[in-house]
Design a protein that fits this description.
Layout: H1 6-32, H2 37-58, H3 64-86, H4 97-103, H5 106-119, H6 127-137, H7 143-150, H8 154-171, H9 187-202, H10 213-226, H11 235-249, H12 251-254, H13 274-287, H14 295-307, H15 317-327, H16 334-348, H17 350-357, H18 369-382, H19 386-399, H20 403-423
Helix pairs in contact: 1-2, 1-3, 1-5, 2-3, 6-8, 6-9, 7-8, 9-10, 9-11, 10-11, 11-13, 11-14, 13-14, 14-15, 15-16, 16-17, 17-18, 18-19, 19-20
Amino acid sequence: MDSKNPHTANKLVDHLFRAESGKMTAILTRIFGFQHSKLVEDIVQDTFLSALKTWPLKGQPDNPSAWLMQVAKNKAINTIKKNNRLGSLDVDSISQVDQIARLFLDHEIKDSQLRMLFACCYPDLSQKNQIILMLKTLCGFSNAEISSALLMTPEAVKKALYRSKSEIHSKYNDITVPAIDIAKERLDTIYTVIYLMFSEGYKRSYDDHLISEDLSLEAVRLGTLLLDIPNVNHGKTHALLSLIYFNIARFPARIGKNGEIIDLKVQDRRLWDKNCLNAGFHHLIQSRQSDSLSKFHLESFIASLHCSVDSYEKTDWGSILSTYQKLMKIDDSELIRLNAAIALGKVEGPKAGLAALDKIDFQSAKDKQYLLYAAKAELYMHMNLFDKAKSYYQVAADLAGSNADKKYLKSKIEECNRNNISLN
């Protein structure tokens, strides 16, 4: 790999932005406080711009993450020295120059980001706005990615971010990051953010690359951080980690040589990552030590049923259907009902699945609507009604947002054509 190649540098910086910007933001927020969030954003952006300018000329450093943190630390120190001279920046005593270095130590980085996760859950903001703030500030999501994850328009996300930041600045000008032991009630919001991060990593909304391992592994990292919180029942944390690990395990078999989507039913299960599978089952067992049943418990159990058999034909669809029926009592979202309908079609036949799909209204989730048409097409395929299946696949392809989805759906249209020829 050419360490001075601009394309290589850009790709690495993009990867590191996902992995490091949240940590950097958390530390800088502890230094400057929430009232200076714009300053924090500027330092983070300047740090990554420095990498884009320097690495193509001098080559990538041996430890890019450490290089970025060092640059961010230097920029923070220089900012404080400059503003102290001007008298224009009022920061807490923790922000004194001689104390900044220790905040960039590994254990302090970990602690800062965990604290920041809880701090983003401002009680005066709605849960959705708390989630938007966290996804933007700590997870490096674009407005388009947030809009897809939360079924909003990018413009609505932009307005929500502006209102949230304005409200925080007006009411919490002197706020400090709260201690973890007084913020446990905010865990559910954090679980939601980590779940959305994993979902976006598992299947990108606005990218030609279907998978983002960076996002999924960051979700694992943040979920694992939560296990450090004392005096908390971590059953739900383990369930969420189990779900994520089971899905990451299938990454090596989900994408073909040309970047095409590979159906679960034809994936080479020998390629599944055994270490991730073992981690999934480990956390699934740990999740049973829980004081309540969550959607993560049920979804991780469904994932385990897929991962515990060596072929698609051995899938226990009866157990999957009954688990989805329990899940719908907790989460009655369109996507859960769609998956339940697919399972119903496997157990009771395509007609039963189609009847269930006809009851789902995707008007509030239009960017996911293509999944409904694709599911109907698949069921018509099972009925050997290939012309009808083809028409639904075509609608799905027209509605799909990513090129990977469009390519996959067009391959299904071609399959319908081949099957029609063989019938005739």
